[in-house]
TrEMBL record:
Keyword match Signal: yes
Protein's recorded name: Transporter substrate-binding domain-containing protein
Keywords of this entry: Lipoprotein, Palmitate, Signal
Pfam family, one: SBP_bac_3
Phylogenetic classification of the source organism: Bacteria, Bacillati, Bacillota, Bacilli, Bacillales
Transmembrane segments: none
Record keyword rRNA-binding present: no
InterPro entries on file: Iontro_rcpt_C, Solute-binding_3/MltF_N
Species the sequence originates in: Tigheibacillus halophilus
Domain (Solute-binding protein family 3/N-terminal): residue spans on this chain: 9-230
Domain Ionotropic glutamate receptor C-terminal: 9-230
Length: 230
């Protein structure tokens, strides 16, 4: 009786707010990451519980055993591969430099000498900014979520910020943010779902099998279209 029908519930860590990947509407979590993991769970016969937190807390929470899956528009990087295993990539992204709308003085990293750059704790953008700090002669101010990072530039506390281009493009297109993207993209990467390194091979296989099956059925494209349009 019973036992075998009980489905495994996996805790999924996502960013507090990172539209179009995750955001709250009417008290419910929505977005590409949320729809994808829910569809993968359905396809592979498990359940998920979404837990939102500052992005910088996701990998530490996985290491502490409090989360099974890390998402949140998380870029696949070699550095992170030392602590987590990534699924196959599910979205192409990368970084952009962002300034206040109408700022005609900053067109690229070269114009950042003596300037302040807002960064978000634990992100690839923060790492990029720190890695190039001395080269371009700027300083950094660190916050823990994208909303605060955008505000630092809007209110003039920072001159620029670094954010993933799908996220900043979506934010500029859908809200009246007084920000603009400048210059070429700073790099390119891919988002992946992550699990504890070396400890979740079965779950990782389910994530990859589920993703492949959503791509094959058209469900993956349907989810992307829902949030990004044609
Ligand atoms: N893709 C970036 C990273 O992995 C930013 C993610 C985020 O801010 N949620 O660090």
């Amino acid at each position: 009786t019973g036992g075998n029908n009980v489905k495994e519930v996996y805790k999924v860590g996502v960013d507090t707010t990172y539209p179009p990947f995750e955001f709250q509407e009417d008290g419910k979590y929505k977005g590409i990451d949320i729809d994808l993991i829910q569809a993968i769970a359905k396809d592979q016969g498990f359940k998920v519980k979404i837990e939102a937190m500052d992005f910088g807390g996701i990998i530490p929470s996985m290491q502490a055993g409090e989360l099974d899956i890390g998402m949140g528009g998380m870029s696949i990087t070699d550095e992170r591969k030392e602590t987590v295993d990534f699924s196959d990539p599910y979205f192409e992204a990368g970084l952009s430099l962002v300034v206040a709308k109408g700022n005609g003085k900053i067109a690229s990293l070269k114009d950042l000498k003596g300037k302040m750059v807002a960064i978000k704790n634990g992100t690839t953008g923060a790492k990029f900014a720190e890695d190039h700090k001395d080269e371009y002669g700027y300083d950094t101010i660190q916050v823990s979520d994208s909303t605060s990072m955008f505000q630092e530039v809007s209110n003039g506390s920072a001159d620029a910020l670094i954010e993933d281009y799908p996220v900043i493009s979506y934010a500029i297109a859908t809200s009246n943010l007084d920000l603009q993207v400048v210059g070429d993209r700073l790099n390119g990467d891919n988002y992946g779902m992550s699990v504890m390194k070396g400890k979740q091979d079965e779950l990782l296989k389910k994530l990859n099998d589920g993703l492949a099956s959503l791509k094959e059925s058209g469900k993956y494209d349907e989810i992307l279209d829902k949030y990004l349009g044609e």
